[in-house]
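Build the 3D complex.
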Amino acid sequence: MRREAAPRPAPARPAPLRAVLLLIALFALVLGVVQLVVGAAPGVPEWVIPVFTLLFWTWAVAGLAAWWRRPTSFLGALLLLGSLAMFAAGVGNLGHPVLEAIAAMFATTLLAVTVHLLLAFPSGRLRGRVPVVTVVLGYVNSIVLQAPLFLLPPDEETLLGVVSTMQSLLGLVVVVAAAVLLVGRLRTADPRNRRVLLPLDLYGILAVLLIPVSGSLLPLLGADPVGVVAAQLAITGGIPIAFLIGVLAGGFSPTVEADALSSWLGVAGSPRSAVEQALARSLGDDSLRVSYWSEAQGVFVDASGAELEEAPGARLREEVRVESRLVGAIDYDGRMVADTEAVRRAGRVLALALDRERLTAELSASNAELGLSRVRLVEAADRERSRIARDLHDGLQVQLVLLALEAQQLAHADGTTAATAAAATGLRRRIDEAAADLRHLVHEVLPSGLIERGLTAAAEDLIDRLDIPATLDSDVDDAALPAATARTAYLIVAESLSNAVKHAGARSVAVRLRQRSGVLEITVGDNGAGGARIAEGGGLKGLADRVDALGGSFELTSAPGAGTRLRAELPCGS
Amino acid sequence: MRVVIAEDELLLREGLIHLLEADGIEVLAAVGTAAELEAEVARLAPDLVITDIRMPPTHTDEGLQAAVRIRRAHPGTAVVVLSQHVQRRYAGELLGPGEGGVGYLLKQRIADVRTFTADLRRVRAGGTALDPEVVAVLLTRAAKAGGPARALTPRQLEVLGLMAEGRSNAHIAARLGTSEKAVVQHTSKIYDAFGLPVDADDHRRVLAVIRFLSEAAAQ
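Done.
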């Protein structure tokens, strides 16, 4: 799909959303500043508070930016949720018992949010039961199973160990389930979308795996405790940045509300596929396709009128109607577009434009079908002529030779009276005359020259038998000329010559046959009375129709008193 | 006279065999394709070949092509081509090469048995038998092109047509109900008009006339 050609729609955000986002930004700023001012509790290193505040702000800014750039997605809201979890995990360092309890409770929530983000990217919505269950399990594991860890007294070591092990195992199950879901999504994703999804999914899964295990893994590799914490925090801070880049990159780039589309369509002048282009951009799914409902065939067709396959399983289809009449459908990737209501709204806005494109698609389909059926008619007529000519040649013409032969043999037979012999000879002559009539008829239906040698020989035979001087100039390669082309060209020459003699009273006529780059050009010019017209029901009209059916052109120049010139071009495939 | 026939229509082939044998002509072989015809000619070296034009497998002009090749390769074998339709171009191609007798007739001419067998014998003797319809095309063409043919009287044109068919002076005289001497006068007028040398050989002079007519229109 070419995008440069169409003007970009200005992203339109409703005023309330802007206000809400500004308010959230202000709130996050205040929270962070308060945290910085309160400062670290005794025993907590000085650098911890600024670092946690910075991470909190990173998540918050990423969330706000995603929401701002992509108002129809819930991803921004999820990132803001992540920023809250980040903040909650940090407040334990401020030295207040309640805050410490909150911090302990939400210490691992960020991991659950990250899994949620990964599975909901880029729409922000979870689709299907398995992803929902996986994400819910993630939250349960990080919040509910976290409770015993700070509610139970520290001396209940056995119980604490069991809960901790359960939490680790369940966490692993969640991460593995998420990984499987992501691999499945990558495999079925559109290549354009996969470019963005692959690095993001890899980073997300590694982050979720590394943050919990790095505490026990990195010291084994020789890292000091400060290094371990720094690594964990760096990975944590990278998550919102990665998702923000993902939202801004590839096919998920700026999106607009459906309301802005109608005006943009007007500006773009609605070229073909304008609807599809507009929808793909507005809904943020490059793989989006628009199909049109063909009432005649009872199927969905594409812009050229060709029938479309059923939408593959991973794709969703939103039907578009104009006053309850089905006009088309929007096929889209449910993982790219969160809001089915947004698709429906966009469909309503574009229904009329889509209906117009549908009519065009239907027209081009029926046009192509009509063209093919006309060619079939010409070919059927030709086949019928060939059959008649062959039947007469092999049947009746032979019979007349034999009948005449018998009549003549009767005349010569011993014992035949002179009167009978004369009668039999007379009969033979009349049969010969009938045969001559039949010969002319067969020649009109399908000339021998055309069958035996091709167009040039047949045209030459026509000219030989003409009563007025005529010339033939041909460079046609008769062997390579398709039968339908040769026959049509012959009929044009025959009709033109007949008109020149019978109607125009021409004194001479010139026929030219030229073959070049897949086109056979037939020109017949006479110096007769002119004034010929392509009249309904006339021979020229039939020829013009035939030429048109074969995809050629037909042009008659015949001013009164200035002779007649007929020029036709036929496709000849070589 | 020993003859080989090539005709794909079975009834017509049988009819031909019957009428030839009834006239004392020996039919050595009768086949249905041009390839078989050429094989039989090479094997049997007949005096005369009678062939159809349109035959299997392609049903186009294979009979004519075979006839032209036989004329070139077997000068001792005369050739008569039969067809449901005659055209000038084929006559030119047949008459072109070779010195032996040659004929090009509509199939319908078979029915006039005596004329037909007489034509075959004349061709066998090195003469020419050109169908009146082809001759008419040649004369029309020559007349359209202008030139010496237009200077001829109607009677001379009649004589010219019969000459082009390959008829002898005696035959022309009988056909026109005039004396052979009168015919000779007409023919010498025609030679004068065309600027052709008077040739004692009937067959050669006929070919000269036909070639003259063919070329007159081509110029």
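Residues 2-130 of chain B form a domain with the Rossmann fold fold (CATH 3.40.50.2300).
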